[in-house]
Predict the structure.
Amino acid sequence: MQAEVNGKIIQLSEAGWLEDLSEWSEELAHEIAKNEKVELTDEHWDIINLAREYFEENGKVCEPRTFSKLMKKKFGKDRSDSKYLYSLFPYGLIKSANKIAGLPRPKGCS
């Protein structure tokens, strides 16, 4: 699978995960989001940026429960529960948001 961004071909896995994490960009995020049937808003970007920050600081993808706690601390109770996260990313935080954020595919995630 591939995505084209600014005339450059970016390699994605068969399931749409970014092969070379250094190639991630906001433009690429929009292309991956199209494949995930997600139209990115500022609320999506809050989640994407927080997920990327966590990965950069910890070297791993954040677990859903921990991520919910981070969201609650930063954005409040209304923007931290799983219902809210699924309203933005119907395929889930781990599968959809991390994929759009250009993070590695977690173990056990298709």
